[in-house]
Structure formats: structure tokens, C-alpha cells
Design a protein that fits this description.
Helix 7 runs parallel beside helix 9. With 396 residues, the protein is of the alpha/beta class. It contains 19 helices and nine strands. Strands 1, 2, 3, 4, 5, 6, 7, 8 and 9 form a nine-stranded parallel β-sheet that branches. It folds into two domains: 342 residues, Alpha-Beta Barrel (TIM Barrel); 43 residues, no CATH class. Helix 10 links the parallel strand 6 and strand 7. The longest helix has 20 residues.
């Protein structure tokens, strides 16, 4: 059997280790590297009243756990549920940014907010955990480019053009794949093209996670800068509408962009959704009883009730090895320069076995090294690729 050049480049370092070289210490590699996670939804828990300054009893993240897991840079997702309309989307998004800025102010010795690649470098060198923002869902700009500019000025380094809902100017993957009610005009409108061009001008990364395939094609035809998929995985492994097909991976490579792998079980294992539905059907009464005692909206009820159902999820949750399969697929298809980490922690109710929360990020590094990636390539995956693409976005 012949191996491709890419496959050989991934396997050779591991083979050399086995022939007598010392195996790298995965924890040293992890904590020496710059580690960037491009998507975390813990802001929703902050809005529910949790103080992330202290180790918390819920979810996947808080400041002590970020530090324990060797996270240097976290992009906090600014996501306003599209049905939450008592106040404007823009106003709610600004409030979310304020909540993370306040967290940084309460913890000046441990945390700081970044804006640019250079600021990230200086703050990490000073020993700080660095927060930035990623806007999830273009509906929060309310069809107003000045609001987009405001988010950029506050440290939003990317914007996902849609969430599951479409905007007036871009269609989502959810809507483009809805056979019962397909969009009349899929893709970007003229205003949508203006949004992409303005993001290029501002140095904001255009994020194609969540967008429909026609929107994706339109973005790639318009953008002058590399794009990212901040939290997506591989269609050919798990055929979920949010995952990327081969032609999309190839286009992102050709554009110089990066795919950041999402840990959501539905995106990692194509059988998970069926197994979960069956488990929840069997446990419906117990789940209803658990959720009745949990305050907050549906998302918080699902997040906190999943913790109480951990033993029920254990037999069906995907493994860290299955997550690593997605990293391998992207690296072999389009190159190790085009893959990174976009966990979606605290935006997913169930995490894979071996990646239960942010403290287990070092296990991801161990898995990559055990699969034969060189230390240099692991450093690219953990954070180097994000910094490269951010600098490219910032360039004039």
C-alpha cells in the first residue's frame, strides 16, 4: 500500500520516536505552546449569574479551569438567541461583551482582554489568560455596518455570518437544507457582500461555520482575506449539516484559511443523535422532572440536566479518538497549516469521553503526538494557525 506524501509527513516523526528517539512530554509541549480555542459559549452561564472567577460546579469552563487546562487565548462567543426579542439583538450582544470585560477587570492578575495579534503576544508573555470575542450570528448587527464596526472595536476578531437562523442578507445551513421551506434567494445579498468586504477592511475574520453552502460559495468569491470555520467538523466522517464537505475544505485551504474542529458529539459521531434520542425517550419522565427544578431558559436546562444524566450518556458519547479522527482528516486533506481547535465547550450539552471540559485539553495534545504529529505541527494546531490567520486578516 502506498502512503501519500502528507500521510508520510504525519507518520514519520512517530516512526522516528519508535526507532530510538525520545518521546516528547505531552504536558510540556502543551503548556509551552500557545493554546487558542476559537469558540466557547460560557457567556450564557455568566448571564445566568455564575461567577467564572472561581471554579464552578457546572459546565465546561471557568477561569481556574482555563488556566489549569493551559488555555492561553479564548474567543468567547457572543450569541443572542434569535427568538429573544424583548430587547434588540445588538443591545444584548453589547451586554454580553460587558460581562466578559467585567470578569477581566475583577481578575487583573490573571486575565486581560486582547484586540490584536500583537496584543495577544504581549499579554501571554506577561502571563495573562487572554479573552477575545467572536460574534456568533450576523443578526446582532441589525443590518447596520456601524454596529459591525463597533463589535470590531470591542475586540470581536470574527463574526459568524449566520447562526442556525438566516439573516436578511445571508442564508444559514439550517435554512438551506430545510426541504420543507427552502430559502427563496439562498446565499449572500448585495448587502451581505458589503458585510464581507467591510470585515476584510476591519481585520475581522469572516467565519463560515453555520452558513449554507450557497452562502459559503458567495463568501469565497468575495473575500480578499482568509476565512475561518470557528467551530465545524468533517462531513465525510459525520454527515451533519454543520460539518464541512471536501470541496469546502479545499476552498478554505486555497484561501489560506483554517478549520477549527468542534467537539459536539453530533458533529463527531454520525450515530450519536439516534442513540441520544433513544436514551432520552426512555428517560423522558426523569428528564422532565430534573428540568422542572432548573431555572433559566431551554439551553440552561439542557446543559445542567445533561450533567445529571452523565451516567446515561457515558455509553453513547464519542471518544477523544473520534475527535482526533476529524483533526487527521483535515490535516491529511488540506494540510496541517489549516486545522485548529474550536471546542464549542459550554455551547454543547454533552462532551466527548476524554475531553470532559477545558482541563482536559492536554489530552488532545497527547493524542496528536501519539498519532505521529511533530511538535512543530502540534504547535500550529494548538494556536499557531490561528495567529497566522489573524495576522493575515489584520494585514493591509
Amino acid at each position: 500500500m502506498k502512503l501519500s506524501t502528507t500521510a508520510l509527513s504525519l507518520l514519520l516523526p512517530g516512526l522516528l520516536c519508535c526507532m530510538g528517539g525520545d518521546k516528547p512530554d505531552y504536558r510540556k509541549v502543551h503548556f509551552d505552546a500557545l493554546f487558542v480555542d476559537t469558540h466557547n459559549d460560557v457567556v450564557q452561564r455568566v448571564l445566568a449569574g455564575e461567577d467564572l472567577s472561581h471554579r464552578t460546579a457546572h459546565g465546561h469552563s471557568d477561569l481556574p479551569r482555563f488556566i489549569e487546562g493551559g488555555v492561553d487565548v479564548e474567543l468567547f462567543s457572543i450569541w443572542v438567541p434569535p427568538g429573544k426579542t424583548a430587547r434588540g439583538y445588538y443591545e444584548q450582544a453589547v451586554e454580553q461583551m460587558d460581562s466578559i470585560d467585567a470578569l477581566a477587570r475583577r481578575n487583573p492578575g490573571r486575565m486581560a482582554m486582547g484586540r490584536t495579534a500583537d496584543s495577544i503576544d504581549s499579554l501571554v508573555a506577561a502571563g495573562k489568560f487572554v479573552g477575545l470575542f467572536g460574534v456568533e450570528g450576523g443578526h446582532v448587527i441589525e443590518d447596520d455596518l456601524t454596529k459591525l464596526e463597533y463589535f470590531s472595536s470591542r475586540g470581536a476578531r470574527y463574526m459568524t455570518l449566520t447562526w442556525n437562523n438566516s439573516t436578511d442578507w445571508a442564508t444559514s445551513a439550517s435554512d438551506e437544507t430545510d426541504a420543507s421551506s427552502p430559502p427563496e434567494h439562498p446565499g449572500l445579498t448585495d448587502f451581505g457582500r458589503q458585510v464581507v468586504r467591510r470585515m476584510n477592511d476591519l481585520g475581522m475574520l469572516v467565519d463560515v461555520s453555520h452558513v449554507g453552502e450557497q452562502t459559503f460559495r458567495d463568501v469565497m468569491a468575495v473575500t480578499r482575506k482568509p476565512v475561518i470555520a470557528s467551530h465545524s467538523s468533517v462531513w465525510n466522517i459525520s454527515r451533519h449539516r454543520r460539518n464541512l464537505k471536501d470541496y469546502q475544505l479545499d476552498a478554505i485551504r486555497d484561501n489560506g484559511g483554517v478549520v477549527f474542529i468542534n467537539f459536539a458529539p453530533w458533529f463527531i459521531d454520525s450515530t450519536f443523535g439516534r442513540k441520544e434520542a433513544e436514551m432520552r425517550r426512555k428517560e423522558a419522565r426523569r428528564i422532565d422532572s430534573i428540568q422542572a427544578g432548573i431555572p433559566g431558559d431551554g439551553f440552561m436546562k439542557d446543559l445542567y440536566s445533561a450533567e445529571q444524566l452523565a451516567a446515561d450518556y457515558d455509553p453513547i458519547r464519542p471518544t477523544i479518538d473520534q475527535v482526533l479522527d476529524h483533526f487527521d482528516y483535515v490535516a491529511r486533506r488540506i494540510g496541517v497549516d489549516h486545522v485548529g481547535v474550536g471546542s464549542d465547550f459550554d455551547g454543547i450539552t454533552v462532551a466527548p469521553a476524554g475531553l470532559r471540559d477545558v482541563t482536559q485539553f492536554p489530552e488532545l495534545t497527547r493524542g496528536l503526538l501519539e498519532r505521529g504529529y511533530s511538535v512543530e505541527d502540534v504547535e500550529k494546531i494548538l494556536g499557531g494557525n490561528f495567529m497566522r490567520v489573524l495576522r493575515a486578516a489584520e494585514s493591509r
